[in-house]
Design a protein that fits this description.
Elements: E1 9-18, E2 21-28, E3 42-46, E4 52-56
Antiparallel strand pairs: 1-2, 3-4
């Protein structure tokens, strides 16, 4: 069963990976570290306008300071 947490984040950087493809580096806004995740994990991002999008986490699971 998937873990469901609400974590406020900040966008630390945006990188153009290919035409029409971007990666986002997220950092926690109100905590020092992110919880652990397993390879293949996804996050659901809710924007201020209410729009929700699912993204694959592609960062190193050992790096709990940022998610990409």
């Amino acid at each position: 069963m998937a873990m469901k947490l609400l974590i406020k984040t900040l966008v630390a950087s945006v990188r153009e990976e290919a035409e029409g493809v971007r990666s986002y580096a997220l950092v926690p806004a109100k905590r020092p570290r992110f919880p652990a995740f397993e390879p293949g994990a996804h996050v659901m991002v809710q924007l201020p306008n209410g729009l929700k999008r699912a993204y694959s986490l592609c960062s190193d699971p050992a790096d709990d300071t940022r998610w990409r």
